[in-house]
Amino acid sequence: MVGGRRRFLTKLGAVGLATVGGLSALPDPEAEPGVDPPAGIEPTETVSSESQTPFALWQYRPSSDGFTPTSPINVVFDLHDSDRTLEDVVDVLRSDGWLTTFEEYARFAYDVRSETYERQHETAAQTYYGGFGRHHVRCWEFDGYVSMQAHQDTPAAPKHGIASYERTQELIGAKYADVGWAVSPNELRFENESSPDHDGLVTVIRP
User: Fold this and answer.
1) 3-class SS at 4?
2) Tens of pLDDT along the chain (207 residues)?
3) pTM here?
4) Cα separation, 57 vs 52, whole angstroms
5) What single DSSP character describes residue 152?
6) Residue pair 152/162 in contact by the 8 Å Cβ criterion
């Protein structure tokens, strides 16, 4: 099963190295400057099922009916041909001042290999509470592939909402490109379009 998904990624191929510099973290979501990542490629296939790819497509929360999707996976890391791990992925954000212990909700991703929902393996955010908004990511690693749900929180009033998926997706791409990782915006298209601004296009990052 994993071999087939690897062939799927190989067929799509890697393109381009993003050269956008990293951005300074700002607490106000509306104050975050825009990022213009490279255009990447236009995907030729749409992934509609987690069985088609080594990545998760959704972040889930527990519900009375089992698990309900809440937010789309919009950044993924292909580590399987390298010696990098999820810890290396998180270290990039930690070295930029992001926190890995903070106030957040527990969320889950579906692992098709074990047919189980797993709580976030790693998380990172700019601030502990995000009272004025913050960029926030949750990560899962399955067999050398990391699925990241990246979003920008609204100010907590008292709970967070989603200000943007796209702004944090672009910010993440810029940060990893700035430290030499290969960043390919739009390499994949997942059938997980979500408001306010996720169009299903997914950034693929490789060491």
Assistant:
1) helix
2) 444 444 445 444 333 333 233 333 334 444 344 445 555 556 667 899 988 999 999 999 999 889 999 999 999 999 999 999 999 999 999 999 999 988 788 999 999 999 999 999 999 999 888 777 899 999 999 999 999 999 999 987 777 789 999 999 999 999 999 999 999 999 999 999 999 999 999 999 999
3) 0.80
4) 10
5) E
6) yes
